Each structure stands twice: as structure tokens, then as C-alpha cells.
């Protein structure tokens, strides 16, 4: 496409908002000729599923100020020459010159190579984009490219692989009961079949009774015993404090998908900031600063659609959750299969399951609150966009590198809602979450409440109550009388 001044201005505005380049956009000042690292960037974009755009004549160090280039025709010719002569296979470049603020800027769009032609290499190295930089691909990433080529001609079913030594005796009974009930209700052809036949025909087990990887991951009591990377690691990234810490509340979650989803969402909710939202009727309603329904959709997608091959699962690549002052990042091993980011972002119905059996199993499972893991209609990403827009937040970003998929929910909306003030306390500098507030209110109304009583008074699940109590217990606001896990243990306010 031919870029216009308005399009370039819009893109620079987005880059200023994120304070840096993106996975798909790279800007360079290039005042004194073509930068030496242009070939690495072109090579990296060529290996991306959607390619990328290189912009010359913009100074990132000065808040993306337009600096211009002295001879745009020579710059365009130089970029095309680099692509053709220095990179193999050579990607296609489409160049244009845009005048902005009275200065000339060169824009080069790098088309992605076809899967069967990847990876592009420069001086023997294959490059890939990550965040705002180019890096040399690791061996396991190169192997993933080769596996992706096989997907073009062969049916690879990682989730159907047997897990030696694991049978239906190793699944959580309640999850299996829910699964069988929902499957019989949804599929009349299986309604009168035995439990064993349904489990076999739907990919939970194999003919010899062994669990498949899909069955273990979806319903197994402890999938991480065989595959440690089937967990979730979450952390809050903070500016380095006096003790040198860079993360807070680092947690590793284990269990099958429903429990992973529940515990991850409890962690997210406990670490989000509670804000005041003024409704149209003038009432103040507390809510989290990022929409939980959007986060739940993205976390569920990451769990169900993550790559389960030996080049991710076999080397310890797990789902990663990072909460920063700028937003929430959900990173899933493996790229998209059978669908592009553009299709996901469009209003068209886009649906493609990386793990078909795991996907179908997950549609029949529920979390403790009765909510479905995934709806299976292929429109969940649009719901994410709608939730962010309703919260007046920037549009979420989806990034596919072919070896990793990242979803980002950005904080800092166009109009910042007022943050709920909390009583000053050196012991608890962080704002209270919504569930913490509910628990504290219940304990103010009635002291010495058991875990069961707290669930009944608040309407929260056992996991939500435990997560909401964690920080008040650590800070000393709430004390526990009795042993952890004992039925007679009660909780009360410390003052």
C-alpha cells in the first residue's frame, strides 16, 4: 500500500503512546545514510507471519520527531538492494516517500516470506522480531519453523500423544463428571454410550486406556508432573526497589486447565488496581482498571491454544503473565495456526484450533462458578476489543511471531478514572482489590468467620476467598486463629 501523511502521523501517535517501536514497526533516524542494521530488521520482518514496516527519517530518541532524510530516492534504492543482495531468500519490499512536517520520510513495507521459504537469513543468521528489536533465532525456534512447514502437508496432532502411566484414575473426578454430563447433553449420538467410550471417542483417552496429552492437560490431577511447562507463571513487574527486586508476587500455577484459569484470574484480580467508575446515573461503582472479562478470554485462549510440541513443551516453555504499569501481557508458546492476526481482529468469524481435541474437551468443561472455559464460537477476541473500548482503554494488541503469541491489554485510558483512595499505611501501600474489600466488609460486620462462612457471606468461591485473604494476612490486617486448612479455623480483623 502507499502510505499517506495522515496514516504516518497516526502511526507515530501510537508509537509515542507506547514510548517505543513495536513488533511490526521499526523507526530509524537515518540522517547520515542507511543505518548498518537495516538488513537485520528487514530479515526479521520477512520471518514474521505478517511482515513489518521500516520507517526512515523519524527520531525515536526525541519522542518520534520527524527528522527527514536527505535523499529519499537513494534510501529507497538502498533498502531494495539490501533486501535482494544481502538476505536469502530475498523478501519483497514496497517503498514510498511521505512528506510530513515539511520533511521527507521513507517507508518500506516488508512482505512476509511464505512458510515453506522461511527462514530468511542475513550473513548466515535468521532473525525475528521481539518487542521493538531484532534477535537471532534460537535453535528451538528454527525447529518450530520446520514443524510449521510440516503443518502445510501433514496432520500433526500433538494433543493426541499418549502419556505413559496416566489413566482415568489420574483425572479429577468432578471435572470428568462435568465433562461427561455436558458431552451427553450436547451430542445426542454419544448420549447413551458408556463413560469409557465417550472418553475414547472424544480424545481424552486412547484405546489402551492411557490418557492423551489433551486429556491430561484438561482434567488431570497434576499434569505438571509429566510436563512441568503445562503451568502458568505470573509476576508483577515493578521498578527496581532498594532491595534490587524487579518483580512482585511471582507465582507458579499448576493443575489442569480449569484450575489454572481460576487461579490465574484470582491472581490477576488481586493485583489489579480498583478504580471508581461513574455511571450515567451518577452513582459510583468500583471496578478493576482492566476488564476482567477480556483478561479471562485471553488467558483461556493462551491455555487452550498454546503449542504442545516438543520444541515448546519439551524445553520448558510455559504460559507467562506479566502485569506492568503499562498493561497486562499474556504470552503463549507457539504462533497462530490456520488464522492470522488480521483475521482475528476483523469482524469476520475467525476460528482455528491449534489443538483440536483439547479445544473440544475445553468447550465441555466449567470452572467452579459454572462458567465455560471457552465458548467455542470464535468471537471471543471481538469481545476483548469491546470490553476494552467500553472501559475507555486503548485497543488491545495481538502479536504473532510464528513462535510466540502475545496479547496485550493496555492501561491508561483516554480519560483516567479516579483511583479509589485507601487509608495510608506503610504496611499496605497497594490499593485494595474488589474481593479484598468484600472480605474486609464481611469481617467488619461479623468477627471469627470460618472459610465456609466467608464464602456464604460474600458469594465468593473458595479460591477467591483464599486469594483475597492473602495480602491482608501478610500485612497483619487480618489474623487467622487455628491451623491453615482446618475446618475450625476462623479469621478476624486484627484491631
TrEMBL record:
In this chain, the stretch annotated as Disordered covers 413-432
> Gene3D superfamilies given for it?
3.30.565.60, Schlafen, AAA domain
Where does the Schlafen AlbA-2 domain lie? 22-136
Origin superkingdom: Bacteria
Quote the InterPro entries the UniProt record gives: RecG_C_sf (IPR038475), Schlafen_AlbA_2_dom (IPR007421), Schlafen_AlbA_2_dom_sf (IPR038461)
* A family per Pfam: SLFN_AlbA_2
Q: Give the protein name, as stated in the record.
A: AAA family ATPase
Q: Which organism is it from?
A: Kocuria marina subsp. indica
